[in-house]
Structure formats: structure tokens, C-alpha cells
Amino acid sequence: MLKAGSVRIRIITNIKKEKKERTKFWDAVEKGEKIKSRHPELVLTPKTFSKVFSPERIRLIFTIRNEKIHSISGLAKELERPFESVDRDIKYLEGLGLIKLRKKEKAKIPIVERRFNFIL
Q: How do the domains of the chain map onto residue ranges?
């Protein structure tokens, strides 16, 4: 069961079928029909899922969630990874809405979005 305000991650294997379902959805919207309320979703193919949630990115999310992180450079040191790699992963995950950056003085502090209920 999803908590209010959470986002569901859905993996699809048939993009053509998904496009057809989305066409039905938009047709219903256009006709003014009542639409079932859906939780916000992040829809991924298996290939995209494995790219988004690579072992290094899962470790990054886990570390942000469970450690006191004060900056991206501090996170890179904690993970023993190059700053550039960690920064690139943070920007990628931020673009997907999985992580947000909070600015504190000159530092950018990565935070896992609470609406994603990762069980790590």
C-alpha cells in the first residue's frame, strides 16, 4: 500500500501496449470523462530500470538516506568514488526527481525525496 504523497515505480515490458493505454487515457480526458485517481508513477523499462538503479546509484541513495551528508564532495569521499562521478549521478537522479539538493552556504546537500519510499 502506498503512503499519501508517495510515488510508485512501475516497470513495463510492452511499450506499444503502454502507448495504447495512454491514448485511451487522453481520449477520456478530452471527452471530459471521470478518470480514476492514480498515484504518481515513475515508469521504466527493465533496461532503463537497471540504468537508473545501478549498484553504485543504489549505494549512493542508501548512503544519502542513512548517513549525515554535508556536501557532494563529502558523499564522494564516503563512497570512495571520484567527485565527478558522484556529481553526475546526483544530477541524473535529481532530474528524475529521486533526489533534491538543498543549498547551505556554498555546499549542496543531497537529500532523498521522501515521496519515494525506498526500503534499503
A: 8-45, 53-112
Q: Is a pLDDT exceeding 70 seen at residue 46?
A: yes
Closest CA to 65 of 96, 100, 39, 36: 100
d(C-alpha 75, C-alpha 68), whole Å: 9
Compute the distance between CA of residue 83 and CA of residue 76 in angstroms, rounded to an integer: 5
- HEC letters along 79-108: HCCCHHHHHHHHHHHHHCCCEEEEEECCEE
Cell triple for 56: 553504485
Question: Which amino acid, one-letter code, is at 93?
Answer: L
Share of the chain above pLDDT 70, in %: 83
The C-alpha atoms of residue 43 and residue 10 are separated, in whole angstroms, by 5
pTM of structure: 0.72
- The domain over range 53-112 is classified in CATH as 1.10.10.10: yes
Is residue 106 pLDDT above 80, yes or no?
A: yes
